[in-house]
Specification:
With 213 residues, the protein is mainly α. A two-stranded antiparallel ribbon has the order 1-2. A hairpin with a 3-residue loop joins strand 1 and strand 2. Helix 6 packs across helix 7 and helix 6 crosses helix 9. It is globular and about 50 Å long.
């Protein structure tokens, strides 16, 4: 068993920075050092008062210390780390770009789909859920044990977590946004290039057959 210090040093850089920053943000709120409203995403204030920082700061507040906060932080420490140390091993810049793409997608897709409430909101839960979704698509056959009760494949994990949030009465919109952003990234980086290469291969084979004929 590694010590907490050894575990911390073993964390990949992007997940380490993001997790620590989210934890510090929650700790500062617990100490009443600031009002979370200053970090929230409010498009009205962004557009009318040019409070541009809200487009970034809202991704670093996972909520106050609570069970929900712990679950999201564990999701980041588990599946985000597995993704960064697995598929993105020695590709820190690519992993960071994926998170930036996810953040931009969330900021763009949510207003278009009218999934944002008119008041303050935060996109951090959606960003963490996006990492969970991408990991599930990259590791579809991994065996996952949920609370020691349910055992399922990694591919079904996002939907299981969505069902648990429904049972516990947690808001589903952040999870759904994370799934949308994660699928958009996976489609553009994996599914679409794969489909175009297959179509290109079929067309190339057809051309060679016509030439030989």
């Amino acid at each position: 068993m590694s010590t907490p210090g050894e575990y911390y040093r073993s964390l990949p850089p992007v997940c380490k920075f993001y997790g620590v920053f989210c934890f510090m943000t929650a700790a500062a709120y617990y100490l009443k050092l600031y009002d979370p409203d200053i970090l929230s995403l409010q498009y009205g204030l962004v557009l009318k008062r040019f409070q541009i920082w809200r487009l970034v700061s809202n991704f670093f507040y996972l909520g106050p210390f609570s069970v929900g906060f712990a679950v999201r932080l564990i999701m980041l420490a588990r599946y985000g780390v597995l993704l960064e140390k697995g598929l993105f091993d020695k590709r820190t810049a690519d992993f960071l770009w994926m998170m930036i793409f996810g953040a931009f997608s969330l900021l763009t897709v949510a207003p278009v789909l009218m999934l944002l409430p008119p008041y303050k909101t935060f996109m951090s839960i959606s960003l963490v859920f996006m990492l969970l979704y991408v990991w599930s698509r990259e590791s579809p056959n991994a065996q996952i044990n949920i609370y020691g009760v349910v055992r399922l494949k990694g591919f079904y994990l996002p939907w299981a977590m969505l069902a648990l949030d429904l049972i516990f009465g947690a808001p589903l919109i952040p999870d759904i946004l994370g799934i949308i952003a994660g699928h958009l990234y996976y489609f553009l980086t994996v599914l679409y290039p794969l489909s175009t290469s297959q179509v290109g291969g079929i067309l190339g084979q057809g051309n060679s057959n016509r030439q030989s004929g």
